[in-house]
Amino acid sequence: MTDKTLGFDTLAVHAGAEPDPATGARQVPIYQTTAYVFRDAAHAARLFNLEEVGYIYSRLTNPTVSALVNRVAALEGAVGGVACSSGHAAQIMALFPLMAPGCNVVASSRLYGGTITQFSQTIRRFDWSARFVDTDDLAAVEAAIDENTRALFCETIANPGGYVSDLDALAKIAERAGIPLIVDNTTATPWLVRPMEHGATLVVHSATKYLTGNGTVTGGLVLDSGKFDWSASDKFPSLSQPEPAYHGLTFHKALGPMAYTFHSIAVGLRDLGMTMNPQGAHYTLMGVETLGLRMERHVKNAQAVAEWLEADPRVDFVTYAGLKSSPWYERAQRITPKGAGALFTVAVKGGYEACVKLVSSLKLFSHVANLGDTRSLIIHPASTTHSQLDEEALVKAGAAPNVVRISIGIEDVADIIADLDQALAQATA
Ligand SMILES: *Cc1c(COP(=O)(O)O)cnc(C)c1O
């Protein structure tokens, strides 16, 4: 069920899954199996040669995991993709078919702290590199792209500050440069915005967050629009030229819009092995069923809490893009008209000390390194998620020492505000 005329909430419940052909099971079964019996030797050979699509081994594909990929692909308007063991695995998998030693990715300086570390440090071990730029400075983005750049990377609603990226403008720059725009849509989810409708080629997710939605799973996804012409230049030989790692198959020529997806499975998952497990996929499928309902409440609560905090004299500022005071307000109205997400930072009067006190005084909020849970969550990025960054990078990433990051849950909003009220009183006493 991936009929494009169906609405978002219908797709969230039905896309990618049919009643189980063997048993009629209505819910997607957890296919807890490593391997799949071949009909005969010829069938096995056809599967290995990609002449026939089917299940071989669960490091590559698994029916529960495929249902999840197809469901989220339907929600994002993608033709295909892969599910991975975490959001960070998905980022490496997204870059893998594009990059080679000496290549770089131009990335927003406002990213999840772990992504900044992955891109600034760890990918250098592959002789890949990242160039961080303020993606609101379009001239700087263009200037950072050179002949070795293979992708432009940003977050729709940047963690932790809640800044909204101008996806349309960035997609145009990427298009002119002949490279794909990769958008991390974790904090927005396809309910708020579908980056491919704004020109993105690839979307990555940490399924750990809103897609699963209840803090039970670590997972990730890479989705492909199927629209990028990998053969337009010689920049993407893994897709446009015979791939030595898959007995000389030319993926783009043989598989057209599914080239990126098949390369990600047949080479990426096969050799990097960062596969999602069927249990995790099942939990995430359960979460996705209620994504629209939850996001509606998340953004409604976030708007109310942000307005309440902004009006409070114990608070210096709130970075929520749904507030008229935000420099990103107009852009949020255009890119995420249904709401500016449910993640933002709050600067508390009293700086670092007051932030630490606030975090420890809250009762309803959980102090955790996570976001996108049904529960309201809080963290002090400077001492935790972003602690690998130096002072300058902290400020650039929107994680200065005087701010806390809040992920607003789906509880009764009056209870969320009451908890913040009593904790602010203690923090600023
Ligand atoms: C959490 C997160 C990630 C990393 O995902 P994991 O599932 O924790 O590996 C990447 N991007 C954003 C925006 C995130 O919030």
UniProtKB/TrEMBL annotation:
One of its GO terms (cellular component) is cytoplasm. It is an enzyme of class 2 (transferase). The modification N6-(pyridoxal phosphate)lysine is found at K209. GO terms for molecular function: cysteine synthase activity; O-acetylhomoserine aminocarboxypropyltransferase activity; pyridoxal phosphate binding. Keywords: Pyridoxal phosphate, Transferase. The keyword DNA repair does not apply. This is O-acetylhomoserine aminocarboxypropyltransferase. One of its GO terms (biological process) is cysteine biosynthetic process from serine. NCBIfam families: OAH_OAS_sulfhy (TIGR01326). The keyword Coiled coil does not apply. PANTHER family: HOMOCYSTEINE/CYSTEINE SYNTHASE (PTHR43797), HOMOCYSTEINE_CYSTEINE SYNTHASE (PTHR43797:SF2). Its cofactor is pyridoxal 5'-phosphate. Belongs to the trans-sulfuration enzymes family. Its EC number is 2.5.1.49. Pfam families: Cys_Met_Meta_PP.
